[in-house]
Amino acid sequence: MTTMRAILAALTLGLAAPAFAAGEQPAPPAVKWSFNGPFGTFDRAELQRGYQVYKEVCAACHAMKYVAFRNLRDLGFSEAEVKALAATFQVNDGPNDAGEMFQRAGQPQDKFPSPFPNEKAARASNGGAYPLDLSLIAKARAQGPDYIKALLTGYKPAPAGFALGEGLQYNEYFAGHQIAMPQPLNDDQVTYADGTKASVEQMAHDVSAFLMWAAEPKLEDRKRMGLKVMIFLIVLTGLFFAAKKRIWRKLH
After folding, report:
1. Peptide bond before 29: cis, by omega within 30 degrees of 0?
2. Are residues 170 and 161 in contact, defined by beta-carbon separation less than 8 angstroms?
């Protein structure tokens, strides 16, 4: 089963993945995201590719319980496409008339389901690590999307003389540089619907942007509101200044 085992453990500095002192953790490289800056916006094509990576790689282990399928309309999917995407997931529902829970195809109003029935089943399938929810990870970690991308692309052969623990992988951006999560992304692991080349760099970039959207889906609305407030304050300041000059001119 394709997984991103213990990714949340990695992203949150080792909830389940052990790390060992081996130098300081370097800062992740700064990425020029489309949503950076006061006027930044999400790149819809990028978000759709990121969703595809999440669906085909991450969703095998990780839920996004704070995101509903209907929210995918923000990514540029049509209502019919959202219904079709939701239907590819199975969600628990019930009880039915017999008092039993049952599974059905997902619907737009449903939240992304967990792939495991409970925490114990999740840990049993992931070597004891609990694959946490991905909904807010991009905001839960400093330099969120930068760090996620750096972590996903930071797997390298261990340097000469580096004592790598048994069953661990070397990762340049993980604290201690030793991580239990196997490299989750490999070139051409997915086939992008828009024909974009699915390199590790591209997939890491796209899924990091998608997780940023999942954590802050109203980012664009917040920026638009902030711009309106700034314009209002500038106009109001101008009016106050003009009124002040008019009043004091009469007094002089």
Report:
1. no
2. no
Nearest-angstrom CA–CA distance, 8 and 25: 17
93, 104 contact by CB (below 8 A): yes
Per residue of the chain (252 residues), give pLDDT as tens: 444 444 444 444 343 334 334 456 788 999 999 999 989 999 999 999 999 999 999 988 888 999 999 999 999 999 999 999 999 999 888 888 888 888 899 999 999 998 888 888 888 887 777 888 899 999 988 889 999 999 999 999 999 889 888 878 899 998 889 887 789 999 999 999 999 999 999 999 999 999 999 999 998 888 888 888 889 899 888 888 888 787 777 665
Bridge partners of residue 169, in order along the sequence: 179
- Show contacts of 113-122: CB within 8 Å, 24+ apart: 113/63, 113/65, 113/89, 114/63, 114/65, 115/59, 115/60, 115/61, 115/62, 115/63, 116/61, 122/61
HSE at residue 64, side-chain half, CA atoms within 13 A, is 26
Residues 6+ apart with CB under 8 A from 239: none
- Strands (DSSP E) contained in 78-223 are 90-93, 102-105, 169-170, 178-179
Round to whole Å and give the CA distance between 241 and 235. Answer: 10
